[in-house]
Design goal:
This protein has 272 residues and is an alpha/beta fold. The protein is built from eight helices and nine strands. The protein has one domain (3-259): Vaccinia Virus protein VP39 (Rossmann fold, 3-Layer(aba) Sandwich). The longest helix is centred in the N-terminal third of the chain and has 18 residues, at 71-88. The radius of gyration is 18 Å and the shape is globular.
Length: 272
Amino acid sequence: MSKVETIGDCTIYLGDCREILPTLGKVDFIFTDPPYGHNNNNGDLIHNWEKALALPLGCGSNPRPIANDGPEETRQLIEWLFAQLPSLLEPGCCCCCCCCGGGPDPQFARWALLLDQHLDFKQMVVWDKGPMGMGWHYRRSYETVLVAQKAGAACRWFDETDAVENIIRPKYRGIRKIIPSASDHPTPKPPELAQHFIKLHTQVGDLVLDPFLGGGSTGVAAVKEGRRFIGCEIDPEWFDLACRRIEEAYKQPDLFVEQEKQPAAEQMELLG
């Protein structure tokens, strides 16, 4: 750990979560988007599409590799993280972990089984993130969120509508993928995605943790919902970006309201 920033009710650590998490006490909820082990945006298909469309759309053409995003690095990291979850959560508290969707590598299945070794696996939620994505034959248009709870108490659940599906549909929730700019994290999640789960599993004043903060969307979501927050980010560039966005979230609650698309941006709907 090399730096800590306190912004309102948020504590943001610059450093490896493997060093930071063992120093923390209990939290009420975990929402995180870890590396998928795909070496994203490091000369891959997404990066090549960005290069082709960078000038007309202003998106990122420079490679922005994600720390610990190689297959073996990610495997070790996820196995370590999931083993820590029982010591971080009280009974009934949940972890919601973003994961990839379909493809030749059934990562979501492995991660679900691994989660179930340490917590009680509850549900795989499908996030339909909008129009057609990358891929071959079956184009990738969704990701998953794996939900697990610590045994020993009823699941902390604060929805009273009895209408929450295990599919997040853009038509009804409006939670669509983000096309990152050249200065943004290469795989950003919309804050509304974390907000959806934060509202289901926590109450105002609860403590939310994200061990892989990236560009800060989970922290922004926690601020908007009146929750306390702890985030860890290993890359100094994304740490600084997350801090700026969380500061702005306190000043401008509607910072991340989707802006009107420019006509050329429709081409980027091909990106996953």
